[in-house]
Amino acid sequence: MKLAVIEGDGIGREVIPAAVEVLDAFGLELEKVPLELGYARWERTGSAISKEDIEIIKGCDAVLFGAVTTVPDPSYKSVLLTIRKELDLYANVRPVKPLPGIMGVTGRNDFDFIIVRENTEGLYSGIEEIGPEISWTKRVVTRKGSERIAEYACKLSSQRKNKLTIVHKSNVLKSDKLFLDVCRQVASSHGVEYGDMLVDSMAYSLMMRPDKYDVVVATNLFGDILSDMCAALVGSLGLAPSANIGEKYAFFEPVHGSAPDIAGKGIANPLAAILCVKMLLEWNDRRKEAALIDRAISNVLENKFITPDLGGTSTTAEVGREVAKYIVQNL
After folding, report:
1. Which of 72, 103, 234, 304 is buried deepest, with most CB atoms within 10 A?
2. Which of 42, 220, 36 has its CA nearest to residue 126?
3. Region 275-280: what's the mean pLDDT?
């Protein structure tokens, strides 16, 4: 496997080295291709990402990505949106599952669900006009985009509890009617049990009864907001991984941002980035190795090798080192 490794900005430069140390502990045959992308590079060179970078990434099988700072400057080209569109990474997959001994805001640990977010259109279409008196963004919902995200969500559902929840706001946003209808049709064709929820009701329900859900599918913006919100269920954004999946490529990144306020202090939680390595291994059909990461994380949590966001005193590097050490000892 050929893997592009992009630390990015802020704490990405701390959590990705910790995650790579964990990946290296398995001794797998893979070629790592380091790339510098993001705001720091843009400040220095005027370019956050280039066509040449995209070609290098397309020469790899997958990407392990840290974080990126995005600035409200018209000349700044969004790194994440560019990569998602160029690689056609249409499915954003965010598991929401508690870790041993860590409680979120609800004090519950009886849930295990996945949010599948359409990743290439919706309000993140990139079709915008900015003016002094009026600004607008075009919300794009297509049958093709809705079908393929529904297919992906149904495939996941069939591997789990065969249960799908479709999130929408079709009572107000009429473009959501197409998304809802297509998701219903695809679920029916696959024999997947389905229901649907308005996004505002879903936000409340996820906080109150997260155990009710298995696979949740949503349009781009709704999926983005709901999945970030659900980090509160597991206890920290530093515990939330994600995958961006396409037909040919995959891109793995922790949900947290670049967190410039804590960057360089060595206190960022690397577990989300390490869980991204787990998702990378699962995508590469290395499920035994992925399961070992779960056990390694349980071990560090049990032995209180935790960063300050979870009430501990360990550094980013120390947590990564302990996870890697457990893997080496238990291969």
Report:
1. 234
2. 220
3. 98
Strands 163-168 and 136-137: unpaired
Residue 15: its H or E element? helix 12-24
Confidence class of residue 78 from pLDDT cuts 50, 70 and 90? confident
Q: Closest Cα to residue 122, out of 135, 100, 104, 141? A: 141
Residue type, 136: W
CATH T-level fold of 1-90+241-331: Isopropylmalate Dehydrogenase (3.40.718)
Per the document, the length of the chain is 331
Place of tokens 């000349």: 75
* Four-CA torsion 219, 82, 57, 282, nearest 10 degrees: -20
Indicate whether 72 pLDDT > 80: no
Residues with active-site annotation: 124, 169, 200, 224, 228
Question: Would the pTM count as exceeding 0.70?
Answer: yes
Predicted confidence at residue 111, as pLDDT, reads 96
CATH architecture of 103-234: 3-Layer(aba) Sandwich (3.40)
Mind listing the pLDDT tens digit for each residue in 209-265? Answer: 999 999 999 999 999 999 999 999 999 888 999 999 999 999 999 999 999 999 999
Q: What is the mean pLDDT of the chain?
A: 95
Q: Alpha helix locations (H) across 160-257?
A: 175-189, 199-208, 220-229, 231-234
The helix/strand/coil state of 59 is coil
Q: Two tokens at 42?
A: 């843009």
One-letter amino acid for residue 174 of the chain: K
Cα end-to-end distance, the chain, whole Å: 20
Per the structure block, which two tokens stand in for 140? 């794009």
